[in-house]
Design goal:
The protein contains 12 helices and 12 strands. It is an alpha+beta fold. Among the domains are: about 140 residues, Jelly Rolls (Sandwich), CATH 2.60.120; about 60 residues, Arc Repressor Mutant, subunit A. The strands form 2 sheets. Strands 1-3-4-11-6-9-12 form a 7-stranded antiparallel beta sheet. The longest helix has 19 residues.
């Protein structure tokens, strides 16, 4: 089977289950056994290592069982892009479908079984990245290990956005020649931030507490966003600078600025693209400038740009060239 995503990062195409088990063990041990299937059975693995995570995609026409060993250093998000199966944590078993994903916490062995031809996206997230984002969102340190609920409802608002962000991360990787470009790094950070903010875990109750921030704290957040717009920023990063929880930041930013912090960040980045397209000193194309400032979905970028500036970005660039 051909991979649905991460097509630029295929590292293995095999019919050997031993070779497949070895290839999947980039973050934790895997032991794969075929349950049944047809001949020839074929599996393709794609893999990309990023700053805070490793992203892998397994496309296979074989039905198999994968016994995955525990790791203390990473969490794992598993999404079925094609086909279906189930996963188990201890004695609990859960479906693995387009509508129901899996979230495996650090330190737990798991088992995944596919029902037949399938395409599974795995995002292995560094434990330090998850803990740092949670502490930033809470505005305090944590003591107990983070334990996520093992099943994700992909039809809910939070689950739907997680799948969207994971897909956009893969799209940005396939489009970008540089894995460290802002358009890639930002989706990785947003995925971590949204996972901590939306998927139920043992700190969710504390995260949901909200109060009102002082105007100076909102200004501090705004100034931080403007000064660091070229970096991959999470909600936790911004809340930490303001000295408030994420819920308080979102509530107060909406109240004082009429928008959420991440919408403000997008607006600031649009301003930077606009300035580059107008600058005689900057030699660029629309797509280069958009990617440089974290916009990988060019259709949405062009629509937002036109709404904000009253013309297409290409028109701004042509007008600038004509003025030289």
């Amino acid at each position: 089977m051909e991979p649905a995503v991460l097509k630029r990062f295929v590292c293995l195409d095999t019919t050997d289950v031993g070779e497949l088990s070895h290839a999947l063990s980039w973050a934790r041990s895997h032991r794969i056994d075929r349950v049944s299937g047809r001949v020839p059975e074929r599996s393709t693995v794609s893999y990309a290592r990023l700053d805070h995570s490793s992203v892998g995609y397994l496309a296979s026409n074989a039905r198999f069982r994968d016994r995955i060993g525990p790791t203390e250093s990473a969490f794992c998000l598993l999404l079925a892009f094609e086909g279906s199966g189930e996963h188990s944590v201890g004695t609990q078993r859960f479906p693995l479908t387009a509508a129901t994903g899996a979230m495996h916490s650090a330190g737990h062995p798991v088992e995944v079984t596919t029902a037949g031809a399938s395409g599974m996206l795995s995002v292995s997230l560094k434990k330090r990245a998850i803990v740092t984002e949670l502490e930033n969102q809470l505005g305090r340190g944590i003591q107990a290990p983070v334990e996520f609920a093992p099943s994700l409802n992909m039809a809910s608002g939070g689950g739907f956005k997680l799948r969207y962000l994971a897909h956009r991360l893969c799209e940005a990787l396939d489009r970008s020649p540089d894995k460290h470009l802002l358009a890639v790094a930002q989706f990785e950070v947003w995925l971590i931030s949204h996972l901590v903010n939306s998927q139920r875990h043992n700190y969710t109750r504390l995260l949901n507490r909200a109060s009102s921030a002082a105007p100076w704290q909102v200004r501090a957040a705004e100034e931080f966003i403007r000064a660091n717009a070229e970096k991959s920023l999470s909600l936790g990063d911004i809340a930490s600078v303001a000295g408030v929880s994420v819920r308080t930041l979102q509530y107060s930013f909406q109240r004082h600025r009429g928008m959420r912090p991440m919408n403000f960040l997008r607006q600031v980045r649009l301003e930077h693209v606009h300035a580059e397209l107008l600058s005689p000193e900057v030699k660029t194309t629309v797509s280069e400038s958009a990617m440089r400032w974290g916009f990988s979905h060019f259709g949405r970028f062009a629509a937002d740009y036109a709404k904000h500036y009253g013309e297409a970005p290409s028109a701004t660039l042509r007008r600038n060239h004509g003025a030289r």
